[in-house]
Each structure stands twice: as structure tokens, then as C-alpha cells.
Design brief:
Blueprint lengths: L8 E4 L10 E6 L8 E12 L4 E6 L5 E5 L4 E5 L1
Antiparallel strand pairs: 1-6, 2-3, 2-6, 3-4, 4-5
Amino acid sequence: MLKEAKAHITRVRALDQLHRGDEIEARLSVGPSYDDVIIRRGSVQETAPGIGVVWIMDHHTGMRKAINTDECSVWRVA
């Protein structure tokens, strides 16, 4: 019987670590007693490390979305 492989997820601390096509999640902290909530998931289209923004192609909506790293944390999904 085959086991399902789990995704390896690591936090991205600097946007210059990201490249076009990387799969990421944007997570919002909802409180100290709760896990972060995934608000966006998609592939990186463009980054702007100077202003703390990354644009992704959102898997759920199929639309390009901007993620502000001042508001949420970014995680690479491999």
C-alpha cells in the first residue's frame, strides 16, 4: 500500500528567497491560542521585496492576488 506524501512547508522570512513558480501559502494569525489561517495559496508570479509584497496566481480563484507581508506570513510549500 502506498502512503500519501505530505508537503514540506517552510516559513519564508525574506521575499528574495522566492522565485517565479514557487508554491506558497499566505497565513493570517488569529490569536495566540489558535493556528494560523491559510488565506491564500498559489504560485509566485512576481515579488517586490522593497515594499514587502508578493503577487501570486491564486489556486482557488484563478486570479492574480497581492500578498502584503506586513499583514500575514508567507510559507513555501514543496
